[in-house]
Amino acid sequence: MSVFITPLFVVCVLLVGTYFIAVIEQLLRLGLRSIGIALTLPLANAIRLLYQEDLTPRGADFFLFRSAPFIALAVVSLVALVIPLGPTLIAFNPSIGLFYFIVLLSPFVVAITNAAWSQNSKEGLFATFRAAAYLISYEVPIGFAAIGPVMATQSLSTQRIVEVQAGLWFVVWQPLGLAIYLIAALFVSFRHPFDSALAGSELEGGAFAEYSGGRLLLFKIALAALFLLLMAMGVVLFFGGWQGPVLPGPLWFALKTFALSALVLWLAHFFPRLRHDQMLTLSWKILLPASLLNITLVGILTLTIPVGR
Question: 48-75: string of b/e by CB count within 10 Å (b at 16+)?
Answer without folding.
Answer: ebeeeeeebeeebeeebbebbbebbbbb
